[in-house]
Amino acid sequence: MFTTKSFIKKNKIGNFLKNVREHYIRDDIYCGIPTCNSCKEVSNSNLSEKHKNQCSLFKYNHYIILDTNIILDQIDVLEEPYICNVIILYTVLKEVKNRSLPIYKQLSAIIENPSRHFYVFINDHHKDTYLAESEGELINDYNDRCIRKACSWYISHLPKEHFVFITDDVNNRRLAIRENIPSYSITDYVKHIENNSLLEDKLSRKDHSNKEGVDVYPPHLSTGDLLNSIKEGILHQGTFRASKDNFLEGYVNVEGYKDPILLQGRSGLNRAVDGDIVAVQIFNKDEWICPSGIILEDEAVSGENIDDVEEKEKVLKESVPKNYEEIQPTGKVVGIIRRKWRQYCGILQGGTEGVYQLFVPADRCIPKIRIETRQAEFLKSQKFIVTIDSWPRHSRYPHGHFVRALGKIGSQETENEVVLLEHDIPHSQFSEDVLSCLPKLPWIITEDDVKKRVDLRGIDICSVDPPGCTDIDDALHCRPIDGGRLEVGVHIADVSHFIRPGTAIDIEAASRATTVYLVNKRIDMVPELLSSNLCSLRGGEERFAFSCVWEMDHDANILNTRFHKSIIKSKRAMTYEEAQLTIDDKTKTDSLAESLRNLNKLAKILKRRRLENGALVLASTEVKILMDSETMEPLDVEVKKMYETNSMVEEFMLLANISVAEKILQDFPDCAMLRRHPTPPAANFDPLVKAGKHLGFNIEIDTGKNLATSLDKACNKENPYLNTMLRMLATRCMLQAVYFASGTLQKNDYYHYGLAVPLYTHFTSPIRRYADIIVHRLLAVSCGSDSTYPDLLDKQKTTDLCQNLNYRNRMAQYAGRASVAFNIHLFFKGKLNDEEGYVLFVRKNALQILIPKYGLETTLYLVKKGENSTFEYDEENQSQRSGDVVLHAFDPVTVRLKLDSSNIQHEKFVLQLVKPVIPGFSVLPINELQESSEPNTAIEKKRKSDNFKTSKKNKSK
């Protein structure tokens, strides 16, 4: 039996077409109740007659039927095993899928878990529960009617069983009760479950706000008004980004404005949370102001008291510079177009009584969240997850609810979990479907494999990697050939041989996109059998590779290039240091040593040529943390050592990527996956240009080559680290390099600014980057080694894939940095050190200090709370003066470094100035403190002498 639905649809050219859709109705759909004798069981049901739902509202056992709003708002409650024997109507399931795919996936996981006893009833195809739409009926009203019809049918179908309808829709509940359907809100139901404290904590607080409170924020405009005003150009749309340094400041990038729109104070931010899509009203130009340049932290301890924030707003207003040249477009948030709330990791602030507590997120860009919990005593020692439910305008903070505890604060395992969750890193165990795609052991190379590949097992190939590396995806060789030429090969693990398109392992790798490296943990993109074994080019083992081989002369000119799949046997897996020692030891004359020496000579030529073309040499604070192998606690922190061999490997990986990019673009002009580094807008370089100007250097930014030349010239013999800091500042001016599909941009936009090359891709790390796997597949088709498939040649599919790759790569970088930061904090616990550092930025109330030894950037506050400052801030010269001492950006300083753990969530370094000496502000060096608790005459004389030398240097600038 079937019925038909017809509707009118407008096509692309403007014609109206009538569509008729058949809707089949059946009489053999199983109700799912195990005690039912009237249904012919044609499918399995997870519902159980043994399970008893314990709710004191009822004296009898019962089955639960859920409304759509309960699933959308209360999925965290449903994930708990207290609620079982639940019937999910197909009408509800469809609506959940349409409105929230993440929640739909969560619900699907619950339904598939047999211990939870959830059952999907196909109500809209059952002859007794199907309803036709009424003319003019709203879709929401129609769905509600279908849900109530299904509830009534269950009650009449099985009169001996009991069914309860749970909904937070007041009108739907009222109509259900009128139709004799037992119906309750989720809050009422949960409150009557025994031992329900955990469930009550998980209840969404959307409707639990005191609507009679005094407004703290302006009201938001309605969605309709927002969209109309944006369409008319009155308002502007963009993504809100909160400042990490000032909780009362934020920015929105909008089209038509070169600089981001500056937002300040409560009325400017107006309940926007980092990542939200907001509508902003831009002020008239005479109301535009400068960023404050001040560091402000939210130190409030009460959930609703606004005295503290009002005081901070006064400080903010007084701190805004009056420099007209520095003003930015300024505005305020007038509405939220789309919330981008997620789950947040953090801790309880503590110090408050009762069920209402403040939650402090790990991410400094997220405001504190007001939650209701009955387990505060337990949670005080825990890192846990909270989600935001609402932010009423009368509330100082958004309202949210507890989701789950992660573990004890400060433990390595818990902190790693926080890092992964905060950066949205997929890190669950690989599923059985994925693992079933792996080759069976023992894996051997067959005769058929040899016939399809070039056999390079007789060549002296070696890999050069960091110590402890197990996912070795590249190896090199260099050997003399006829005519005095050199054959140079880059051999990359052939991961695409094991990961076939469309398989479970391929889909998982595409989702993860990249391997994530934490200090003491690695989250693999592919299972370990591939990453550390079959695809790892380990010394002395035969492996499949994809080879890029050049014929070169001794001046590193490429005479010929070829690509092919190969079989290799690496002679040795070396570290950078081992390779360097081999090159430097002139007594070693074997073929492997000669190969490395030739590679190193060619690499130096390639690098010199790249730099002459305008490639940038940038800098960052990369450190290595040495861990205790048993306790996994940090033993020491040191700057990563760099050898010539680091550069040698880098040059040949760059050359291989460039060569492959040229090949795949030639054969796939519309769908090649390439990597571009956009030229930064001139405004990005303002901090670098100003810093150079204050130091007497002219930093030219009109081209990458001029920037590189300017940075090379910006040196100071008295401060050898100055050039490194300028390069670090230049790094921060750059835009992110991104993947893209070749057919989506003009060729001029393919350019890689940092490398100064017109064409680039990623080919050399397929074990840890999914982009490289796609490039391998394209190259394999070009070489005739493999066949193509539809998605590989689909420009739109490639573009969608690139968006995920770019996001995942960015998050992986941030996660790695966060892991390093946590372990550095762990290393410094209980320590008190005097360290050499440099002023990186001058702020109105603080100095940003860089400590190169540990790669640390920390803040030295110049004003103690409740005291008057002895410093004078010179905005024009970006300096701070106290007496005869003047501090500029990049000046060397000595600071006392101590970790303040009083705020467990946001542990921070507290700095004190040691040198230069400023009476009443600086502290004695630790060694002098150990000699005497009071400074003696000899020490005082030495300090005055040091101070005189420092002030003399500063005056000479």
What is the compact description of this entry?
By secondary structure, the protein is α+β, with helices and mostly antiparallel strands. It has six domains: 49-202, 5'-nuclease (Rossmann fold, 3-Layer(aba) Sandwich), CATH 3.40.50; 223-338, OB fold (Dihydrolipoamide Acetyltransferase, E2P) (Beta Barrel); 343-421, OB fold (Dihydrolipoamide Acetyltransferase, E2P) (Beta Barrel); 433-668 and 761-811, no CATH class; 680-734; 833-956, Nucleic acid-binding proteins (OB fold (Dihydrolipoamide Acetyltransferase, E2P), Beta Barrel).
Break the fold down into its secondary structure elements and pairings.
Elements: E1 2-10, E2 16-24, E3 63-66, H1 68-78, E4 86-89, H2 90-99, H3 101-112, E5 118-121, H4 139-157, E6 163-166, H5 170-178, E7 183-184, H6 186-191, H7 197-202, H8 223-231, E8 236-242, E9 249-253, E10 261-264, H9 265-269, E11 277-282, H10 307-319, E12 330-338, E13 343-348, E14 356-361, E15 369-372, H11 376-379, E16 382-390, E17 399-408, H12 412-422, H13 432-435, H14 447-452, E18 454-455, E19 462-465, E20 474-481, E21 485-493, H15 504-512, E22 516-517, E23 522-523, H16 528-534, E24 542-552, E25 558-569, E26 572-575, H17 576-584, H18 591-612, E27 623-627, E28 634-639, H19 644-667, E29 673-676, H20 686-694, H21 704-713, H22 722-733, E30 738-741, H23 770-783, H24 795-828, E31 832-842, E32 846-851, E33 856-861, E34 872-874, E35 879-882, E36 885-888, E37 892-900, E38 908-915, H25 926-931, H26 937-956
Parallel strand pairs: 3-4, 3-6, 4-5, 6-7, 10-12, 15-17, 18-25, 19-26
Antiparallel strand pairs: 1-2, 8-9, 8-11, 9-10, 11-12, 13-14, 13-16, 14-15, 16-17, 20-21, 21-24, 22-23, 24-25, 27-28, 29-30, 31-32, 31-37, 32-33, 34-35, 35-36, 37-38
InterPro entries: Dis3_CSD2, NA-bd_OB-fold, PIN-like_dom_sf, PIN_dom, RNase_II/R, RNase_II/R_CS, RNR_Ribonuclease, Rrp44_CSD1
Main location: cytoplasm
Cofactor: Mg(2+)
